[in-house]
């Protein structure tokens, strides 16, 4: 059944609405960064660049690295942008733009999406300057209030306990990322569980001129523990996108992993003086392993 114009919005040149991309513009392996200015920090390592496209905060470079075709694209901040990104990337490979019909199950393409971003540590034993690969992501945002995400028993338990701990009116969501990509790309990195917050200040416990509704928010994040047969679950770091990636990736059938450059530690109050070096090291490591 054809998808209406109001749902699948295409530009005059036939490209997808926000990303401004055509199906031929992307590869099956996609590296994402939050900051548009960081896209060249990735593509500068490419042997050649074939495509450069920009619309709003979405900057895309497509090229070759050691003979492999790669896409790097910026997303901006927040899971609202990840909602746009994941849905439009999936549409590029799994919807026929001529007939406007989804491809059959046998024809569907599974993308490999690798988030390379900055993050703040919640625990004192995760040093500034380290790299962390996310096993589970917990979303405090409301994105999954609008999608039929199916969670495992452990994921439901963790989300419910965090809801009770923070006295939230809604249940957060918890999602495990790609085991395949985590094993391929995360060797030697700290494995952790990332908290995705719907903001940088209050939702991450920062106080400038506004007080917090939960004055002990950071301490509650740090002290959270869930015991299960799989071991102890704790929150290791936080940022603003990973849970959206993992949830949408699961529902759409794509392999997704989040790699985090730890540039701050909220337990010790540290911030990296060489934050760009920390993220650039992670970019180089990711490209070598892809």
From TrEMBL:
Enzymatic class: transferase
Gene Ontology MF term list: uridine phosphorylase activity
GO cellular component, one term: cytosol
Pfam family, one: PNP_UDP_1
Domain (Nucleoside phosphorylase) ranges: 30-270
Gene3D superfamilies the record matches: Nucleoside phosphorylase domain
PANTHER family according to UniProt: FI09636P-RELATED, URIDINE PHOSPHORYLASE
Protein name as catalogued: Uridine phosphorylase
Entry EC no(s): 2.4.2.3
InterPro entries membership: Nucleoside_phosphorylase_d (IPR000845), Nucleoside_phosphorylase_sf (IPR035994)
Alphabetical GO biological process terms: nucleoside metabolic process
Reactions mediated catalytically: uridine + phosphate = alpha-D-ribose 1-phosphate + uracil
């Amino acid at each position: 059944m054809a998808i209406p114009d109001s749902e699948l919005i295409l530009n005059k040149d036939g490209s997808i609405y926000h990303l401004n991309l055509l199906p031929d513009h992307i590869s099956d392996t996609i590296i994402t960064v939050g900051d548009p200015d960081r896209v060249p920090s990735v593509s500068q390592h490419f042997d050649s660049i074939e495509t450069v496209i920009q619309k709003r905060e979405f900057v895309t470079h497509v090229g070759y690295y050691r003979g492999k075709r790669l896409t790097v694209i910026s997303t901006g901040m927040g899971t609202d942008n990840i909602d746009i990104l994941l849905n439009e990337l999936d549409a590029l490979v799994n919807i026929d733009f001529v007939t406007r019909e989804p491809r059959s199950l046998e024809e569907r393409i599974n993308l490999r999406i690798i988030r390379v971003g900055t993050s703040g540590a919640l625990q004192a034993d995760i040093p500034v300057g380290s790299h962390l690969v996310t096993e589970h992501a917990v979303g405090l945002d409301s994105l999954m209030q609008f999608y039929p995400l199916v969670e495992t028993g452990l994921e439901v338990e963790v989300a419910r306990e965090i809801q009770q701990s923070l006295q939230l009116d809604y249940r957060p969501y918890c999602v495990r990322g790609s085991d395949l990509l985590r094993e391929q790309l995360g060797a030697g990195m700290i494995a952790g569980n990332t908290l995705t917050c719907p903001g940088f200040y209050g939702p991450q416990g920062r106080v400038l001129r506004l007080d917090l509704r939960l004055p002990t928010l950071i301490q509650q994040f740090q002290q959270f523990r869930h015991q299960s047969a799989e071991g102890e679950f704790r929150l290791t770091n936080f940022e603003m996108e990973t849970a959206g990636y993992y949830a949408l990736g699961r529902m759409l059938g794509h392999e997704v992993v989040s790699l985090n450059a730890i540039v701050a530690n909220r337990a010790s109050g540290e911030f990296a003086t060489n934050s760009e070096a920390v993220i650039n090291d992670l970019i180089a490591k990711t490209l070598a392993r892809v």
